[in-house]
Amino acid sequence: MEEEKKMINGGDVLIKCLLKENVKYMFGIPGGQFLNMYDAIYKWGKEQGIRTLLFRHEAAAAHAADAWARVTNKPGICFGTVGPGALNLMSGVGAAWADNIPIITIVPQVNSEIQDSFTLQGNLDQMTMFKPITKYQKSIRKIEEIPDAVHKVFREAMGGRPQPALLEIFEDAFLEEIEEGQLNILGFERYRTYKRPSINNESIQEALHLLSTAEKPIIISGGGVARAEAWDELKDFAEYLQIPVFTTVMGIGTLTNKSNCLMGASVSGPALKAAPEADVVLALGCKFSYTMGHGAEPFWKDSQKLIQVDIDPSIIGRAKPITLGIVGDCKQFLMQILEEIKKFDKIEKREWLNTLAGSRQTNIEKVNKKAMRDKIPIPPKRLIKEILENIDDDAILIIDGGDIAAHMVEQVDYYKDRAPLSTLQAIGMGQLGTAVPYGIGAKLAHPDKQAVAIAGDGSFMINIQDLETAVRLGLKNLIYVVANNSAWGMIKSGQKLFMGKRYIDVDLPEFNYAKCAEGFGCYGEVVTDPTELKNAFDRAKNCDKPAVLDVKVQFDTPDTTKLMGSMGIL
Fold this sequence. Notes:
The chain is built from 22 helices and 20 strands. With 570 residues, the chain is α/β, with parallel strands linked by helices. Strand 2, helix 2 and strand 3 (51-54) form a beta-alpha-beta unit. The longest helix is centred in the middle third of the chain and has 21 residues, at 351-371. The termini are far apart.
């Protein structure tokens, strides 16, 4: 008797492909065209290690996938149904795109037979819609196309400069069946490389000469160092030559604050002295975006020599004139230049480094003076000092919001070390509403670590509905701190500084975020006294459920906001 052939549908094939990519979680909301995909997970996928995570809004699901990718350096997967689900995903995908984060977005498309018939959720050109915010888009209609399409979106998302990719699957492909074993589903090691391209020795020698002969060199460590996992090589190189290191927001944590070379974030006080005075700048995986004054005068000088290293040639020389451009992976560059520099004597000390270190210490003392005040409402700097002093040593820190985010970045590495891949902020797009979903994605990636998110009251409300998701998933030691000044703080600061305090649409009504959080099943507490911040934080840490601290803070414009506003870059 002939053995019956086992048939599988498009949903089965997609899940088999994602399992080959070691996908653990898919963040999203179901839709009718996804029924076979869900059924595959229910019948056998969960047993093999993959599951869907239900969110209450697709934007939050995309943000959670983004957070997963940021802390694991592996692609996050988000999905939403055809039409409105896809539309809702876009803000989260856009935030990941702006920060070069690899997420795979999966959306279905209506059946080909009714594609142009004004059917429910149809007639939307999703490929064109996502094109500006994804590196690659692939649409398929047949079941046999699924494996190759999955390979292509992962290869594109992870190759070169990482960014989101889109996979659109027509319902036809989900409904079709094929004999199991007919499709060739490759593991990731069979179709994309992890080997880093080497850099020609001439470029290494030229960079080495420029840096070793400089009097006032600096290094800017950007997101490219984080994505390349090059923090050990950066530390060795900077300390060997005693070169001051500033990090971009995306590069926070790429150099430990235990190193005498760390001068802080590129928006901090010492950067204001170092940027225009430096004679040679080594820019590693950074774009010279608005947070770095666009690489322009007066923050920088066109006369200074710039060595720019980036995996993407389109970034090199884009914002600031270069002396030497090197297309390559930051880790490979640092490995090669380290090998060469160790042929020469180590530099024991550099007066320039000591000068900037003194500037950093002065800045820390100045900030701490403000951060010690017991005023009510609580000064934002006091709130941030209390958070950063009391978080776990290996905590994941999430920064959401406008003015409170600027305050946080100013102080982020003053009190405890920031580990690599542990500080999350949607800085490129300036996206608000990331706190809740970033906390969920980060906590799922590292269940053993504390996750702490700080947000302004305006931004916290944007995805507040997914507090229910955090509770449903049973997440613990996940703490949300709402810096509540009843205002859209950054816009109010703009109206204060440049519009003669003519405030409009920036003041928010009194709202009890703690009570709201309790309604979702979280622990909630209102904090008005700065001397109670530590105790409140301890209660939130030990409450055995997600926690929300509603902290009443002053409306206080950060120095960074004033500076960037005066430079016309906000």
